[in-house]
Amino acid sequence: MKKVAIFDIDGTLFRSSLLIELVDILVERGAFPQDAPKAYAKDKERWQNRQGSYENYINKTVKVFMENIKGVSYEDFSSATEIVSKRYKHRLYRYTRALLKRLKKQGYFLLAISQSPKGVLDPFGKALGFDKIYGRLYELGPSERFTGVITDLHLISNKANIVKRAIQKEGLTLEGSIGVGDTDGDISFLEMVETPICFNPNKGLYKHARRNGWKVVVERKDVIYEIPTGKKG
């Protein structure tokens, strides 16, 4: 059985959010209304000015995506995802990029789990060498247009469920496993692996890492450093 390395994508490997970039491209190409970004503009500015939270900004962006994806053709969506992949394929953190390459050479099964749409995750993740990619799946109607419905939301909403599914389907082992995440939404799968790595963690994940003695790594400008958290137990 192969060892597994599990990566969150947005904010962990990719230095942004694939969903955010996808929404911008869909607006740029006319698939979404030109005034759609107004719905999250204030939250984006507040986050950029360190006056508001990133969670508020991304949640508003997700809402805009959900409100506008209904009726969009698969062809328009697919074209936008390819643009995102090509335009941002090098916008990666150095630490996680190097870790991914090293683990690939060591024969690890590389598993990506994200709340971004799987349609945008696939071209981005496959180019990086991931063996399996899980993300949100959106239902297509008979005319090849999105209905606005997320399929199997119960599964993707809990990343631990995805890991259990992947281990069973792919014949993997958690022995020697590694996990990398950046928010408290990643705790469920980080608790499953032998070596959890909290990369540029938010407050919720950092507090959990300190309580459990997990590795915390921060990449800031051209410096990568580890923050001591104490030994577990």
Description:
Helix content is 45%, strand content 24%. It is of the alpha/beta class. An eight-stranded mixed β-sheet has the order 4-3-2-1-5-6-7-8, with helices on both faces. β5, α9 and β6 (195-199) form a beta-alpha-beta unit. α1 crosses α4 (74-88), α2 (38-48) packs antiparallel against α3 (54-69) and α4 (74-88) packs parallel to α6 (118-127). The two termini are 29 Å apart. The model has no long low-confidence stretch (mean pLDDT 94).
Give a short synopsis of this structure:
The chain is an alpha/beta fold and 233 residues long. It has ten helices and eight strands.
Beta-strand content estimate? 15-25%
Helix content: 40-55%
Biggest sheet, in brief? 8 strands, mixed
Spatial arrangement of strands, main beta sheet: 4-3-2-1-5-6-7-8
Average pLDDT taken over every residue: 94
Radius of gyration: 18 Å
- Report the strand count: 8
Straight-line distance between termini: 29 Å
Number of helices: 10
Write down the overall geometry.
Answer: globular
SSE class: alpha/beta
Low-confidence runs: none
What string gives the helices and strands in order?
EHHHHHEHEEHHEHEHEE
Q: Main attributes?
A:
24% strand; 233 residues; 8-stranded mixed β-sheet; single chain; 8 strands; alpha/beta
Protein topology:
Blueprint: E1 2-7, H1 18-28, H2 38-48, H3 54-69, H4 74-88, H5 94-105, E2 109-117, H6 118-127, E3 132-140, E4 146-151, H7 153-156, H8 159-170, E5 172-181, H9 187-190, E6 195-199, H10 203-212, E7 215-220, E8 223-227
Parallel strand pairs: 1-2, 1-5, 2-3, 5-6, 6-7
Antiparallel strand pairs: 3-4, 7-8
